[in-house]
Amino acid sequence: MRKEMRDSKVRKRPGLSWVEVGKQVHEFTSGGQHHPQRESILSRLETLIGQLKEMGYAPEISSALHDIEVEHIEDQLFHHSEKMALVFAIMNESSLPNGGNVIKIMKNIRICVDCHNFMKLASKLFQKEIVVRDSNRFHHFKYATCSCNDYW
């Protein structure tokens, strides 16, 4: 099936995420290739991943694309657009609406299992509510739980 899709040039819609910081909406793609603060975001993201791993986070490799090599799976998962948006929001916490107590991220596709687990633990670590609006519903992450009760 994947070969047929490649041969007919069918492309998967790229995942995009948006977060408002300082009355400006910032857009993120997987890997954040086009963001001017990409390097500092990736550095902070690496630190955050380490902190969350200490809290029990384990990458959900079933969420990765199937046509990449095993050694690149974690890198691909770690650079999903919603994770980049979250880190950017945390880095600019003082410019967030609502005094930074709630981080709101919009997505154009569904959140994957790995990012869902990541957001749950991040909400506990930062003691903030993280709201992710994906293509199906709102996910309200607070104290390591989600309003969808892990069913979406």
UniProtKB/TrEMBL annotation:
It comes from Trifolium medium. The lineage of its organism: Eukaryota, Viridiplantae, Streptophyta, Embryophyta, Tracheophyta. One of its GO terms (molecular function) is zinc ion binding. Residues 56-152 form the DYW domain. This is Pentatricopeptide repeat-containing protein. It holds the Pfam family DYW_deaminase. Belongs to the PPR family. PCMP-H subfamily.
